[in-house]
Amino acid sequence: MAVELGIVGLPNVGKSTLFNALTKAHAAVASYPFTTIEPNVGVVPVPDQRLDDIVAIFKPEKTVPATLRVVDIAGLVRGASQGEGLGNQFLGHIRTVDAIAMVVRAFRNADIPHVTTELDPGADVETVRLELILADLEAVERRQEKTRTAAKGRPADYGAELATLESLHACLASGQPVRGTALSAAESGLARELNLLTAKPMLYVANVGEDDLPAGGPLVDLLRRLAASEGSELVVICAECEAGLADWPAEDASAYLRELGVDKAGLERFIHAGYGLLNLITFFTTTGGKEVRAWPIPRGTPVIEAAGRIHTDMQRGFIRAEVLGYDDLMKVGSPTAAREKGLMHLEGRDYVVQDGDIVHIRFNV
After folding, report:
1. How far apart are CA 154 and CA 148, in angstroms?
2. pLDDT value at 143 more than 90
């Protein structure tokens, strides 16, 4: 199943603008809440210089990059966990994604009203965080009630689960997200089973004005300290600027960003941050001179499961994998030279695919 990164935040912070820039899908954007009702889903190519380098060597007819699935979720408001602003529906949308990118407004624009009278990124983060915590508390309490009922007849069978639920409840009731808390194996497992919102990995996106690029200004400094205190990543981006550049020729867009002091497009930094947050790596396959393809897989994936990503027949009839590291290929310049120098190695089904591996699966049909 494909993994997804959900874009969340308060209304009018630039979520849909960022989504449009990422996907060029032109999701509806307007300066009033709840423009986005149903989540928009986009599939975004992942920029990767390694793919370009491999293509330069193999010169295929077709190149297929790895992709990242991004979901634009409607803005949350204070009271969402109690149903305000269609909150329960929107929180349900967040529950289905695998990681969260919280977009926080750090730009001033009188034409785009903010949900509060004062622009305060710290307070905005706290509003979203509180609603996610309250929603998780409700989920834990529902499970506690169900488990207590079941435990009346068989208390010994449910004692451990009740203790685990109590521990999760205490964490959330203290105002702390489950993410970043030292959890036991039982607590982590139950948090995944309940699909707790605050257990999902998260990064922050500071949406700034074009004049505030590249660093972002005082409002971003506050977010930078907050992210650092949590061990989270912060991406500074001007979503409006990047959306405007999305249809420009790549060289012209890069030149314009360099004039603003931006050495790498915010979109590219966001995509790479999201890819890493989802714990994804990339392996590559080549099909003669026909195709070079990049495949996203979770870190730690055995090669037999990676074979199944390519085709179920390859997993079913797997014999062994022929593996060449990207760095080794770059050192010698061709697969033939890599084979001659013994850099290409054969691996069995339990081999764990490494980031940058170029893999050829040998299998029986």
Report:
1. 10
2. yes
